Amino acid sequence: MSTPLLLLHGALGSAAQFDVLRRHLPQEWPVFALNFPGHGGLPTDSAFSIDRFADSVLDFLNQNNLTQTQIFGYSMGGYVALHLARKHPERVRRIVTLGTKLAWTPEIAARETALLNPDKIAAKVPVFAEALAGRHAPADWREVLRRTAELLHDLGNGAALGEEDFRSIACPVLVGLGELDNMVSLEESSQVANWLPNGRLEVLPGVKHPFEQVDAAWLADWLASQVGNGV
């Protein structure tokens, strides 16, 4: 592989979620992962936004002297990758997404933000609340949820990428969709894959949305088949 591979996590996630996946990728590959601001214990003093997260990726590339990269973006990470490729096409060689929500309306945003109530999460799924607390310590996981809800609200109310934005992304993009994904639809994934000049859709049998429920060894093999030549 000649072009480094960068792994971008999803909303509420962190770079540590890729630890198992990285162990299954070829050891000789140059693989990187980062935490978005406010995630994985990183501090932040401003609101979450896709634009700010994309800028943080650009900063990471510059700090590590990576002139160009391939990106695997899970969920929100895929959206950040697409945003980066639109703003800085010379830095992104290829994108592979998995479970990336691409269609945003006020109604969709309202539905998704309703799932981010920290009191309900703590009461109904305390194991998940505990995992979030550990993942983002020393930051307050409740604050991560609050800022994420604001980000989703903004996407649903004008901040999302539109058709012309997707049509301007020139690099090859594989839109990966789990067959059993209950958050991302086939319709939106197919539509955006068609808008992208070098887009392609692949539906992955038996794959669900939660990253922890995707078999890491299988995912590594699939990812290697997409980015392994690095050119």
How would you describe the overall organization of this protein?
Helices cover 45% and strands 14% of the residues. With 231 residues, the protein is of the alpha/beta class. It has a single domain (5-102, 160-227), classed as Rossmann fold. Strands 2-1-3-4-5-6 form a six-stranded parallel β-sheet, sandwiched between helices.
Mean pLDDT: 95
| Class of secondary structure makeup | alpha/beta
Q: Write down the CATH topology.
A: Rossmann fold
What share of the residues does DSSP label as strand, in percent?
A: 5-15%
CATH architecture designation: 3-Layer(aba) Sandwich
| Unreliable sequence segments | none
Largest sheet: 6 strands, parallel
Number of domains: 1
Distance between the termini: 8 Å
**Name of the CATH first level:** Alpha Beta
Shape: globular
What's the β-strand tally? 6
Report the total helices: 10
* Rg measurement, Å: 17 Å
The CATH superfamily appears as: Alpha/Beta hydrolase fold, catalytic domain
Helix content: 40-55%
Helix-strand string: EHEHEHEHHHHHEHEH
Strand order of the largest sheet: 2-1-3-4-5-6
Brief sketch in words of this structure:
The protein is an alpha/beta fold and 231 residues long. It contains 10 helices and 6 strands; from the N terminus they run βαβαβαβαααααβαβα. 45% of the residues lie in helices and 14% in strands.
